[in-house]
Amino acid sequence: xxxxxxxxxxxxxxxxxxxxxxxxxxxxxxxxxxxxxxxxxxxxxxxxxxxxxxxxxxxxxxxxxxxxxxxxxxxxxxxxxxxxxxxxxxxxxxxxxxxxxxxxxxxxxxxxxxxxxxxxxxxxxxxxxxxxxxxxxxxxxxxxxxxxxxxxxxxxxxxxxxxxxxxxxxxxxxxxxxxxxxxxxxxxxxxxxxxxxxxxxxxxxxxxxxxxxxxxxxxxxxxxxxxxxxxxxxxxxxxxxxxxxxxxxxxxxxxxxxxxxxxxxxxxxxxxxxxxxxxxxxxxxxxxxxxxxxxxxxxxxxxxxxxxxxxxxxxxxxxxxxxxxxxxxxxxxxxx
Length: 336
Ligand SMILES: NC(=O)c1ccc[n+]([C@@H]2O[C@H](COP(=O)([O-])OP(=O)(O)OC[C@H]3O[C@@H](n4cnc5c(N)ncnc54)[C@H](OP(=O)(O)O)[C@@H]3O)[C@@H](O)[C@H]2O)c1
Description:
Keywords: Oxidoreductase
InterPro entries: NAD(P)-bd_dom_sf (IPR036291), SDR_fam (IPR002347)
CATH superfamily: NAD(P)-binding Rossmann-like Domain
CATH class: Alpha Beta
Shape: globular
Strand order of the largest sheet: 3-2-1-4-7-8-9-10
Pfam families: adh_short
Bound molecules: NADP nicotinamide-adenine-dinucleotide phosphate
Number of strands: 10
GO molecular function: oxidoreductase activity
């Protein structure tokens, strides 16, 4: 049962938390930021460059917008970092596969994967790869990418004796979803037609949290309790960005008013993503809310949530095997 008063207080507490400017060095590190051409992704990529990363890959669905972002970062940060724009469209499994194969072949290390790209839409007719578009982009493709990049991240950890970090950007919106599909016999199948669109974005973010928790547990279980690959989720809070561009007019006015009163700039929001990406072992499997490990929604923490998590994980692994046979073995295999 969603308690609006408690949720409102939770939102305010998190939103009013101040976020320190990131200062951890990334010297010598290689980083991928998806959706890096604008909003929080662009600002996070700018921080990584400023903090000395050797190689920063801007993974963008529009190369043109990616190149503009690269020029913008280079102007604000004259640094020796190699900034590259690589195409990645999370609405296409072929694009995700091509991106990950390229990373596996061309990168000698991958220290941070900031899975930031996502979309928000209320349009039930927009489909991609047979699923409603947000489910494809925000969930299925995101974890196809994570699992395909795991061997490279495990190799990086083993070769340089470092922890590597996957941060999946979640949202406070996951608190507000009833997740009506959880009662269906096949959860992902029920996302094929668009329904309950008012809570769809929040549901995709809830799924991200459930899957990231399960993945982190499994990685730890396969590494004597201490996987060198850290997987966490990050909530940047309400921020000014283009995320709400497809929301209907009145909705946009409402969001714009909230952002005006309480919102962070994209740069401030990106600090929350940086905090999670730098969080280390204490953030393994955790929800990092505005820079601090915090509790996700009651559903995630409940017995029912843990059962749903198992079902979601099982269904997702079947889907991912259908897209890229053998990819699920990457969770348990050691560094290749
Ligand atoms: N802004 C907020 O208040 C807020 C709050 C909580 C969580 N978040 C999360 O923060 C993250 C960043 O969002 P933002 O606020 O910075 O929004 P944004 O400005 O809309 O940025 C989203 C990024 O994702 C990219 N993207 C969208 N669909 C894609 C696809 N199919 N393939 C590849 N890239 C795609 C966008 O590329 P294009 O420019 O080509 O569309 C853009 O670069 C998201 O995960 C969002 O859910 C935001």
